[in-house]
Design brief:
Layout (H helix, E strand, L loop, with lengths): L1 E5 L8 E5 L1 H5 L2 E5 L5 E5 L11 E4 L5 E6 L1 E8 L3 H13 L5 E2 L4 E4 L2 H9 L3 E8 L14
Parallel strand pairs: 2-6
Antiparallel strand pairs: 1-5, 3-4, 5-6, 7-9, 7-10, 8-9
Length: 144
């Protein structure tokens, strides 16, 4: 059982736990390492796991490194900043997790949202990469 977290200390680990953005929010439950070891997380609710975090159990020699899984995403770009801001607004209005970069948005692959974005004149392509969505306005107040 893993009960402690060291933030951004990726030294000396015995196992690697690759998690999606959604899985990094869930601090309790069973998970499987890359090498097939089943783990039980019982972590304090201190915000989502961050790639580079080390998880520890009662036996602190057993260390598990958190990494970000590669996910199927949509990459959204636009011909203007305003158009990209409008897309952010419409996606946020639907409570869609978004990774916001200066000239692109990234969201989990979804055919309905892809169609909506294309109909709004945005450029959308399917990609695979690690996903780092914004925490949200109240992310500092609580987490799942």
């Amino acid at each position: 059982m893993l009960t402690h977290r060291l933030q951004n200390d990726n030294k000396d680990h015995s196992h690697t736990l690759e998690l999606t953005a959604q899985e990094r929010k869930k601090l309790r439950g069973r998970r499987m390492t890359l090498c097939g070891v089943e783990l039980l997380l019982q972590l304090p609710r201190e915000g989502p796991l961050i790639p580079g975090d080390l998880l520890l159990g009662e036996n602190t020699s057993y260390r598990v490194l958190i990494t970000a899984a590669i996910e199927d995403l949509l990459e959204v770009s636009a011909s203007s900043t305003l158009q990209l801001m409008q897309a952010s607004y419409h996606l946020g209005n639907r409570h869609v997790d978004l990774e916001v970069q200066e000239t692109n948005l990234f969201l989990e692959s979804d055919p309905v949202l892809k169609k909506m974005l294309l109909e709004r004149g945005l450029f959308v392509k399917s990609i695979r990469k690690a996903f780092f969505p914004e925490g949200g306005a109240y992310a500092h107040a609580h987490s799942n």
